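Board work, copied verbatim: DUF4402 domain-containing protein
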Amino acid sequence: MRFHFALAALAATAAFATPAFAQSAPVTSSDSIEARALLIQPATIQRVDDLSFGTIIATPSASGNVTIDANTGLRVVGAGLTGSVSDQGQRGRFIGNGVPLSSVNLTAAFPNVLVNTADNSAGVTFSNGSLDLASATGSRIIGPTGVFYVGVGGTITIATNQMPGLYTGTVTLTADFQ
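↓ predict structure ↓
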């Protein structure tokens, strides 16, 4: 009987004992995020998002087009190329601020070529540059808040034996507030 009582007492002590690691000092961890705000002034246009065609996988014998829609941001990758699922690209976006219900004329200047950042003699052709209007040049009425967005899209052509690397170019949007 004494043996069973001792085992029961030992089992009860083990069941309610606090693990040793719980009695140590508290663990502290921290991290940070960036807090930011985009401040725009009246009668201005400002970049929000860059136009990105994403990551494209092309074998040396592959060629084709990649298009980003200015209205939806949808990427279409032509036959022969493979678009990375983890980097699908995005339409470019500008934000503008003007007098509510007035008009603004928008004009875009698109590059003819995106240039390889490691070797500026290599390039991919840029074409069909577009805004989320009917064409690259257009007019719109500014909404009642005074704030408006402009989406930017286009097409690049990947040639056979295209040099791998990052290709860049500049799109410039000019807003003429009426």
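Residues 38 and 159 are 38 Å apart (CA to CA).
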